[in-house]
Amino acid sequence: MIIRPIADKDLDTLYQIAEESGPGFTSLMPNMDALSQKIAHSIASFERDVHNPGDEHYLFVLEDEATGDILGTSGIEANTGHTQPLYHFRRNTVTHHSRDLDVRKSVETLTRCNHYTGYSEICSLYLRPEFRRANAGKLLSRVRFLFMALHPERFSHKVIAEMRGVSDAAGRSPFWDWLKAHFVDMEFSQATQLIGAGYTDFIDELMPSHPLYTCLMSPEARAVLSQVHNNTRPALQILEAEGFKHKGLIDLFDAGPTVECALAEIRSVRSSSAHSVRVDDYLAGTNTPFGRTNHRHNEPTLIANTETANFRATVTSEVSEYSDTLIISRSLATKLCLENGDLSRILPLNHATSTARNRITATELSYAY
């Protein structure tokens, strides 16, 4: 498996992924023109000389080098709210108090806001069900953090992820059903298509700007506030292991939680390390050709070059460290477009954790956010 930037040749497969992912996956919608523009935007973003984050969008694909199949996608939005507003509902508690009567009542409200303007966003994570295999989901999720660690000037110091909320097999959202009944006479699929196409004017025109009292909502709508789609739960657990936290902001349409973390505090960013590369097929023993002991990585390790437009990353257990030098095979170097003396960055794929909930297998992850 190899991670690379998306290319024009991937358009048909990207369309298939957009269809497979279903309603609610707004970062990829089944529209050929829109997807073609998204690919062109991504290619231009990777090629751009960037010193501060702008409207760049980076879209990666996971490819099986043997068959050429595209297994999944993963993306990063460099600067949210740069070209169109990014709205959420903020969950607040409001307390009404009468001093004379000595009566106090606290109620929860949802207030529309665009708090996350200027943050970077990880998005478009999708692993196709027929290609689920060991380490594929972790590779798709964590490669973005490696890329951000390599090129921090391209991203905000704060990162968010909008998690897909609860909806059924037909794409119906209990939260949206309540909003539709009282405010926006529009199907959930139509609303998500408009968002996916970049049209947000209807949010200001039709959706409530005043606080909504959650006690007045249907029980079904209240029950899904800040909850995630079953297929998204493993992805959320991976992000929680990375240090992401939910701080009360939810999606306008399906009430899924948005989680956030400072870029410098993301576990994969802190745990990754840079190394100069030496290409050598002498990897089988515990000694280097110089007779000195080296350190062999027997656990899966995410390794990437330091390029942008020519970025490549994969998972391997066939690397050794000698001092500050990473010793890799010629075949791996070719796969990653690396030569002697080039810089690479590595990350242990399986973070040690004391909580069972964070021991996620990639085969659990189909599509996420």
Automatic annotation (TrEMBL):
UniProt GO MF annotations: arginine N-succinyltransferase activity
Xref: Pfam families: AstA
Question: Residues of the signal sequence?
Answer: none
Alphabetically ordered keywords of this record: Acyltransferase, Arginine metabolism, Transferase
Looking up InterPro entries in the UniProt record yields: Acyl_CoA_acyltransferase, Arg_succinylTrfase_AstA/AruG, Arginine_N-succinylTrfase
Enzyme class at the top of the EC tree: transferase
Task: List all membrane-crossing ranges.
Answer: none
Would the keyword Lyase be found if you checked this record's keyword annotation? no
EC number per UniProt: 2.3.1.109
Transferase as a keyword?
yes
Annotated NCBIfam families:
arg_catab_AOST, arg_catab_AstA
Tell me what this protein is called.
Arginine N-succinyltransferase
